[in-house]
Every structure is written in structure tokens, then in C-alpha cells.
Design goal:
By secondary structure, the chain is of the alpha/beta class. Helices cover 31% and strands 29% of the residues.
Length: 261
Amino acid sequence: RARPVASRQANPRGTVCGWGLEVTGRFAPELAARRGLGAGARRDQPDDLVCNSCALLDVFTEEILEGWGLVIAEGRVAYAGPGVEKFESVARIEGRGHVIAPGLVEGHTHLFRMGLGATVPLQLAAGVTTTVFEAMELGYILGPDGVRELLADAAGMPGRVLFTVPTLTGLDPVMDRDIGIPGKQWVELLDLPGIIGVGEANWVEVIRGHPRVEALTAGAHVRGLTVEGHGAGAREPVLNPFAAYGISADHEGLDAEDTLN
């Protein structure tokens, strides 16, 4: 229930929390970080933060582990278990009466009517520490520059704010032609910090072989990023070719039968 107050981000992939720790978006720590984690777990050096006297939620076993705590080093969990009071640390949080749980992840959402500055703090207050936004709304109007503006704006947000590069599928031919921006300029966005993949690709344009969608999908695969699908209403023989293009997910269905398909 305790919520840290986050301050200005160091970069779009992570946030500097109220404890002065950077939470990184990389899954695998570098060698120096792994050594620091090991040293912190062995109590060979002071850690960054200790949360003690807590109840720790294990989301794998669904247990609440009373009297457990966390030790943080290198912006990561170095130790989870009882007896964390023995660890020396730069900062300490007394967690008695509180439950520690992982932050929630909003894996797919849109910006409607409210900007990032209004949306993200509300997400964080609800326990959502990572939010993945579609960038299509601004992308329709401002193109790749609009996506870059979103990334710049996200650098000042609390929590971890990430984006997908929009495919802008689902447009009528006139609107699609008026975008007039080569696929290459969209693919280049995949190399920017804060971008974690390609946004929802409508199955109709995927099957038709839309050049912008094909370029973005190929670019994502080369970089090890994901491609979100929009497969609502798709039926066989479309679904397998849709997946064969490398679409890794679909975030919605029209009804229960559509979702099962």
C-alpha cells in the first residue's frame, strides 16, 4: 500500500524513484550489475535500499510471506526473504503493516482526451508502475515526429512509460496516401529508448501485405521486439497466415467465439 513518490526520469526506459534508484527496462543486467547484486546479497557491501518487517506477496505461489523483506542493489532485487534487518543499506523503509507486491503492468492502452502528464500519475497511484502506450493517435497527425514528442514528454513522467511504433493500419486509401511518410522513417523509431515494439497491426492490412506494416514487422524481428496484433473478426484461413507474419499477440476479440479462435 505504500507508494513511492517518483521524480524525474533519467531516461525513457527507466525511472528514478523517490529512493534515488534507477529502475531499468533491461531484463538482463550487465556483468558489473550482476557482481554488485551478488555482493549485496552476500552482505559484502552496503545495499541501496532495505524494505523490512513486511509481508511479501509471492505471485507465483499466491502466498503472503509474513516477516519477509527485500534488499535492493543496482536498481534490482538482490535478496528476498526473512532477516533483511541484518543488511547494511543506504536507505531503509519500515514496512510493518504493509504488503510488498510487484507493480502492475498495463500492456496496451491509448491516450484519449488526456495527455501523459494527466494519465501516468493516475496509473501510478493505482499501482501500475509500467504502462505501454499505443502512439497511433499522435502518429496519425504528426507522423514519426509525433512519436518522438511523446518519448520526450515521457522522460519527465513517474513510473516506467513505454511506447509501440504505430502501423497506422485501418485507414482508408486517401488517408493512408496522405501520410506520405516512407516506412524507413517509422522503422528508425524502433531504435529509440522507450520503444518496445510495433503497435497493433490490423489483420486486414497484414494479409494484404501493406508495405509499411511489412517494413515495421521485419524491423521489429531483427531487433528482437514484438509486434502487437489487431485480429478482431479474423477467421480461418486468415489466422494462421496472420501469425506466420510474426504477429505475437492479439489484444481483443469481438466475442467469446472470436477470442477462442
